[in-house]
Amino acid sequence: GAVAVFVVGHIKTSWAMWGEVALALFSFLIAAAVYIMDTVRNIWVCYASYVVFRIIYMLLITIATFQIATNLSVERYALVFGANTFIALALQSLLTLIVVDASGLGLDIFTQFLIYASYFAAISLVFLGSGIYSIM
């Protein structure tokens, strides 16, 4: 993952224009990797999909952080990234409570993976719409 992030750092592109489209593509690839983990019952394929998931997730987070940081002044980094982390953890906890916990839906593992794949696919569509809007 670190090598992939290093390589992306040396790609000369206008991240302001193409960053959200890249985020859409990476989110879709993550959705595909999680969907493969849901449907394929081979442990080695699941491990390979997890490695792909982690590599792409690291790329996704790096690009998103870069996109946010380019529009901030230095004085606001801690506030913005602290608020982002708090909101992300709150959403993750809420999703876990709803999907995994017995007091929520208490779904089996395969259904959970399907929901997580759908979640990343929905995020991909949001980024794609925003990216197309930015390009136009």
From TrEMBL:
Q: Report the GO terms under cellular component.
A: plasma membrane
Pfam families registered for this protein in UniProt: Folate_carrier (PF01770)
Q: Which GO terms describe its molecular function?
A: thiamine transmembrane transporter activity
Q: Which residues cross the membrane?
A: 15-37, 44-66, 78-101, 113-135
Q: Which top-level group of life is the source organism from? A: Eukaryota
Sorted alphabetically, which keywords does the UniProt record give? Answer: Membrane, Transmembrane, Transmembrane helix
The UniProt similarity line reads:
Belongs to the reduced folate carrier (RFC) transporter (TC 2.A.48) family.
Q: What is this protein called?
A: Thiamine transporter 1
Protein species of origin: Mesitornis unicolor
